[in-house]
Amino acid sequence: MNTIKTVLITGANKGIGYETARQLGRLGYRIWFGCRDAARGEAAMKSLVSEGHDVRLLPIDVSQDESVRAAAARVRDEDGRLDVLINNAGIPGGPHTTPSQQRIDSIRAVYETNVFGPIRVTQAFVPLLKSAGQGAVVMVSSGLGSLGWLSDPANQFYGVNILGYNSSKSALNAVAVAFAKELASVGIKVDAVDPGYTATDFNNHSGYRTVEQAAAGIVWLATQDPAGPSGRFYFEQNQIPW
């Protein structure tokens, strides 16, 4: 059975997910390179392989049950375990408007990927995380999901009032807490992380942080001792309010 540490990163073909894969590859992890678009994922994966990283393309659409089940079956058949799961795939939704005007179908689409997707993937991969003996699940959230920050007039995010996206990340944080409570007894640590306002396609490269900075926080959390505190929310290695 494989003894190399393995990690699955959803939404890995670009931006923060891609850089997270690169940084974990440098630490010797085998990367399960999760992406919805196999063609786009193949090109991105080859770039990492050319750098010497151990990367395997894993087509996975987090919004589709069958796709997630097939991905879990492949990892089970080829590795028999998973050490780290990073739920990174997400969408911003749009167009952004006032909460009273945002369409329900738009909000529903955001939740399908940002909330139900991580639930679906985590449920499917829990048996493989258990097979590893101990492990970690990282929910890539956002400071816009922090109710503490959003309700503080002095916080930089106070004026960003996007009903669908913000609430989906608040919900994701609650999902992290729920899984953390269940899985602590079997040595699986579950936390959420805010990568910060990062310049990616997600926001038309308007963010002030680099993907390297954003990924560093995710990698730090993914590589913490699974026996440590679980069910926390972090930014820049510091705990932040839910």
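[next item in queue]
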Amino acid sequence: MKRVLLSSFPMIDPDTYRARLAEGVDDDVEIVVAELGSADRVIEAGQGFDAIVTDINTPVTAEAIEALSPELDAIVRSSVGVDNIDVPAAAAADVTVTRVPDYCTDEVATHSVSLLLTCLRSMKPYDDAVADGRWSWEDGRPIRRLSASTVGLLSFGPIARRAAEQLGGFGAELIAHDPFVDDDVMADYGVETVGLDTLFERSDHLAVYAPLTDATRGMVDADALARFSPDSVVVNVGRGPVIDADALLDALDDGTIKAAGLDVLAEEPPKDDPLVGREDTVVTPHAAWYSEDAYDDLNHSAAADVAAVLNGETPAGRIDPDADWL
């Protein structure tokens, strides 16, 4: 008998796992659904399981991995990022970590472009002004032409590449910084490779796609934001802590930048976050990933990874613990 623990997080659909594991695993499988949310809960609820399917809000620490070894064979992250999982500790304990890197590429790219356009075109101030009984184009000033702008992309993985394809239709100049992507790959998308300082210096608008690592935490700081203009928009669909939240708040308060479109925050869900509820910010609830199609793809792919691990096979979403980007 194999045992699989599923987080009760809404992105994880137990019915998909039941169907996939019933037909795709050689042994009988017991599936248990439990609320997680903390490393202590993982330790408490995860005893005696072969695989744990976890969520974005649940840290799986080295201590948790040690407490669940040697029974635990896999930690399956039901999404793209693995910043909440101690991958080196898992590797040391011979625990496979998987993710689903490609289920929402189009959705997140489209969401990032939507946030950029919403902020750039002053949609929120205009909507608020009309609701207040005003009818004036001046309520959205200043607005600059996107086709005359340079959009900087921080990280150039699959999502940023799809966004580059979408932004290319607007005629904007595109530049990107990603030390793990070759120049010719960026050139294939009509994007110029630049260093990090140049990215901040030349970008009229910035879209952040970077995962959260020790190297990217706080990468967009006060010094970076100071290089933008009062017409600039900053968008983040990567991870909240990649942008220094205090620096972003100061840049908005003093008019260093025009607006920010944020699908991710330093703390989720936010508790009295001063970036929420402002006229110059558009905040969505880490929903860039979502479409019904992406939801289905996510659950089928993650369930297939669980099945592979339980059958002693290499799952498609396995994380290489020696990967440079971790």
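[queue empty]
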